What does this fold into?
Amino acid sequence: MEVRLGDQIYIFDCGTGFRVLGQQLQNEFGEKPFTAHVFVSHFHWDHIQGMPFFRPLYANAGNRFIFQCSNRTRSLKQVLADQMAAPYFPVKIDYMQARREFYDLDAGRVTLDNGIQMQTAWLNHPQGCMGFRMETKDGILVYATDNEPGDAAFDKGLRKLAEGADVLIYDAQYLPEEYEARRRGWGHSHWREAVNVVMESGAKELILFHHDPEHTDAIIDKVVHEARNYYSKVRAASEGMEIKL
Ligand SMILES: [Zn+2]
Ligand SMILES: [Zn+2]
It folds into this structure.
């Protein structure tokens, strides 16, 4: 997920879409170096898998990537080195020419450049996952993926994080009936809970995110249709989707 604020680039998580984003950034900047802030919610494969395939990390020594995430379980620097170690990947990490900086982030509030306020909170997910709330003069964006409902403290923390946001991007991996039948404890949510979160937090627009890989577009369309019976401003995230604030 990419956020643009003027000429500043912020990226949230590095799954398979990160590879595509890398190509787009190379097309956009060509030989011109650029800087991006990269926030990583946690280290499950679907959030880091695109990293070795992100071309701007290799291409230009002038490129600068400022990685920020919790190192409660392991440092991202180590995770990146591990996932590229033999025999998992043929390219050595030394081939990455771009400048990489790693900063530790825990739950709390930090001021980024441009005066942007970033609030972070832990979500309810196996091995942990961090949710992000970005406050800018143009609006408030909350990226809260990989979260299971049902724990009172986490449920409250999530609603606080999402409070009054213009856009809430939230985990809706399962159908409610799938969740009830066989996915409790797997660390994910469903669209019915997503609707509860947007309504109870006073966030304005809900973007259903982290779709189950087994769900077809037809299933997602049906989910959006059903969700709109409860709350009108609901959309499902899709590759290439753009939201202007
Ligand atoms: Zn996860
Ligand atoms: Zn995930």
